[in-house]
From TrEMBL:
InterPro entries cross-referenced by the UniProt entry: DnaJ_C4 (IPR052763), DnaJ_domain (IPR001623), J_dom_sf (IPR036869)
A Pfam family hit: DnaJ
Domain J: residue ranges: 26-73
Range of residues in the leader sequence: none
Identification of the protein by name: DnaJ-domain-containing protein
Length: 73
């Protein structure tokens, strides 16, 4: 399978997001929403974040799994 620049860039964005999530303690910051976000805004942010950092995209990466679990909390 050929790795494209877009794939590499998406992987790098995912890795950066994983590292950011692991440093956060606020669930709102983990999802990138304000504390007064609506349930729909929270849902959309969760879906976007979970697609970016899903452990299937980072196989055998315990940090990715932990970040995904934190976002799902």
């Amino acid at each position: 399978m050929e790795v494209t620049t877009a794939t590499t860039s998406a992987h790098e964005r995912g890795r950066a997001r994983i590292e950011q999530i692991l440093r956060e303690r606020s669930l709102y910051k983990i999802l990138g929403v304000e504390p007064d976000a609506t349930p729909e805004e929270i849902r959309k942010a969760y879906l976007k974040t979970s697609r970016l950092i899903h452990p299937d995209k980072f196989r055998n990466d315990e940090e990715a799994t932990r970040a995904f679990q934190m976002a799902a909390a």
